[in-house]
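On clarity, I found the account of how folds are encoded harder to follow than it need be. What matters is that the chain and its backbone geometry are given together, residue for residue. I therefore recommend that a typical entry be quoted early in the introduction. An entry of this sort, consisting of the sequence and the corresponding backbone structure tokens, reads as follows:
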Amino acid sequence: MKVLMVCLGNICRSPLAEGIFRKQAQLRGLGWEVDSAGTGSWHVGEAPDPRSIQIARQQGLDISDQRARQIRLTDLSAFDYIFAMDRSNYRQILELANDHEQRSRVHLFLDYAGRDQESDVPDPYWNDNGFQEVYHMLDQASHQVIDRILDQSVSMTTDQGIADSVQ
């Protein structure tokens, strides 16, 4: 399974989401590939925001080796799931998509976690105190997203097994 987290500059939300999601997948014994990117190019090559690094470190997670990159058209085919942190980034990713198959891989992260009332992960860039809230929001949602992906995988495997036995 390949998962991509996307925010605006790839220095605040998506690096946290990448680190949290990767750790939670590893704790479950899942060998998933997790990456992050931004829709903008302002920070390409930079480490995550020091405040993201700090809040992650306080939670026992090191994201300091990550480097910002911009989402590429090839990502839309290379990743099974592409999670946008907010509606603006969601729309920008969909604009890159060439077909229904690519668009079907793109989701709002909190919506996919079942938190419809809060579809956007707030950008903490302008609010020092927002990093802790965003970390906990992403941490909780990551558990729910992994559960949903696993449930869908089991469902698809079961459906395929039924279809094979009917033939």
Observations:
- The two ends are 28 Å apart (CA to CA).
- Residues 5 and 83 are 5 Å apart (CA to CA).
- The mean pLDDT is 92.
- The domain at 2-166 is CATH 3.40.50.2300 (Rossmann fold).
